[in-house]
Amino acid sequence: MPIYEYEHVDKSCRLGECFEIMQSIMDKPLTRCPDCGGEIRKLISYTNISTPKTNRELRELGFTKLVKRDDGVYENVTARGTGSKLVIRDKPETLPNFSKTITD
User: Fold this and answer.
1) CA distances (Å), 3 to each of 16, 22, 43, 46, in order?
2) Pairing of strands 40-42, 18-22
3) How far apart are the C-alpha atoms of 41 and 82, rounded to whole Å?
4) Cβ–Cβ under 8 Å, residues 43 and 7
């Protein structure tokens, strides 16, 4: 469940001026503090999203990254093992073997 931040409008209470609370994404935003009953408002918070940065990280997570090298020619910079490093348009035999990386 997501954690949301709220701020007291007038005065703070035992929870402080700002506090966090875990709520379902389907719940309506709170308008009253669960501790003191004072008026509160929901804050917009930063999110923490971690994305792979390098080709190695992408490969380890099972992604395939193709980089355009020429018209209809792409380099598979995350190629594994003996797979083709070049992917050429209209040549399906050059496509990566996804059965090695995709599992149920």
Assistant:
1) 16, 4, 11, 11
2) unpaired
3) 57
4) yes
Task: Please state, rounded to an integer, the average pLDDT across all residues of the chain.
Answer: 86
- Assigned token pair, 104: 């149920």
Of 50, 44, 38, 37, nearest in space to 4 by CA? 44
Provide the b/e sequence for 64-81 (b: ≥16 CB within 10 Å).
bebeeeeeeebbbebbee
68 CB-near residues (< 8 Å, 6+ apart): 74
Q: Give the closest residue to 64 by CA, choosing from 99, 89, 96.
A: 96
Q: Which tokens belong to 101?
A: 């990386």
Considering only CA atoms, which of 104, 103, 98 is closest in space to residue 79? Answer: 98
Interval 8-50: pLDDT, tens: 998 888 999 999 999 998 999 999 999 999 999 999 877 778 8
Structure tokens at 11: 């005065």
